[in-house]
Amino acid sequence: MKKMSTYRILAILITATLFFAACTKEKTEIKLNPKLSTSQIFNVTSDSATVVGFVIASGDGFSERGICYNTAAAPTIDNSKVVYSATDLKATFTVKIPGLAYATKYYAKAYAIGATGTTYGEELSFTTLPVIPVLTTAVITAITGKTATGGGNVTVTGGATVTARGICIGTSHNPAVSGTKTSDGTGPGAFVSTLANLLGNTVYYVRAYAINSAGTAYGPEVTFTTPVDLPALTTAAVTGVTKISAVSGGDVTYNGGGTVTAKGLAWATTSNPTTSDNIIPGGTGPGPFVSELAGLTKYTTYHVRAYATNSAGTAYGNDIQFTTLSDILTWNIPGNYVGDSYPGSGLSDWSPDKSPQVISTLAGPNNLEGYVYMSKVSNAWKFATQTNWDGPNYGDGGAGKLDGGGGDFSSPAGYYKINVNAEATPMTYTAVATVWGVIGSASPGGWGDETALEYVPASSSWKGGMHLTAAEIKFRANHSWDFNYGSGSTSGSLRGGGDNIPVAIEDDYAITLDLSHPNAYTYKLNRWGLIGSATPGGWDSDQNLSWDGVNKVFKVTLNLVAGAMKFRADDGWDLNLGGDINALTPGGSDIAVSAAGNYTVTLDLKTMKATVTKN
Questions:
Q1: Percentages (nearest 5) of helix, strand, coil residues in the chain
Q2: By percentage, how much of the chain surpasses pLDDT 70?
Q3: Is the peptide bond before 426 cis (omega within 30 degrees of 0)?
Q4: What pTM was estimated for this model as a whole?
């Protein structure tokens, strides 16, 4: 085995000698020069690289070997070189080139100097790595208790793109990008940074930063101190409002870096009150405080703001507006009609505390209003100003007047709008029987006349169904515009003489008008459908019900399969009916369908009953 290896080595050397002789037969003067290769470049840094040369044939020997390099192609020893200084005779030699420029492309070749000249290996190239940028930090200017202006200047990019720059800020030395920082663009050059959300009377440390692929560089650290800032505070919600008093206050959440020497509540009848107006002192220092306002005027609009003072000045919380109460009156209307007219309500005959009421408003504290249903052929009643008979109580004084010693009022059956003028001397009243309906361009009768609704004592509301087009409606009584309601301030609320109520979708609607709560009247417009696994649309889509004006029910005929279903309003789950079909309840359980077939389904919203009849 050893003999074979020796023969093989000899053969290789002979072949190499013949090869090099053939390659140089036309230049016999360098025939015996060393033969070498530039084989590898590694450990490239920003300022150095290591190059490996390899001696293929030594010829008559060589006096020097190493690496030559340059920033232009085809380097020679006349450019720059590093001599291999070791004295060993190994074929492979390694040279580290120091002192290179960062982010620069270089060309390198191995060289060897023999008796007759210089031989070079193959040319290789490499590029040194970039370095982190070089930058400065600007002096901080425009310093307030909350803000300041800074910046920096990236003077050297380090041979790579500066992908981010800005300033780092903190209350300790050497703030870094891992903490609070600004972002102020990319690339070289000067930049300006705005510092916000600072604390008053605080020492801050700032360094500009710039980031490239080599890493993050920082400029020199600068420092500045903010002056005392105004305090920060909020105004507490106003509670406990009466005719002459209320409760508010505030919370000083930040002292501005100084001492809060005074805090409290400023109030006035104009917006944004200051300490030059009325004040209620609330102590000193940070934290919450409570202020009680007294001696106010009834039914008057006031503004309040919390205030806090330190050496920087006085700061204010948010402005809150409130209105003191007026002399709102609530009168009860007991009588012999109550039990029959309000079944299941808990109200009872001749009990002031269990009777319908009329109530005044803030805007009209002496004008009471309300709706009362009287179902008997002849109904006796009175006004009770308290929830008992301790008085004062008022009866019929004749000619629409109230009399403290008067007898019972007597009225035939009807749904009465009752008004009282408690300012008049003597006090007066009206009780007008009303019948309500729907009028408007969306209604069956247009604007010519109302389409009647039906009063339902069980729900103390007017109900009905009808087809409405995509237009407008209002509620009107007695074929007279003296009694009409339109849109109120919130969805579903009503206001006397209010705007027309829009109808967005043409369809059959269930309509509810609720006038049972004095001065808080509401309405509902609902489209009804059938949904469930038993229906053609499953639980994904409703099967619309149509209004049957003859039988006063909503109705649909359709094919059902064995499964479950429910009634649902307006294609949503906010209002749905289920449970026993003879006593439907909001949110009730699913209604079972035991067998497939063609069915007629009805929904009576007056009695809250349904029918499911197989055809």
A1: 5, 50, 45
A2: 93
A3: yes
A4: 0.54
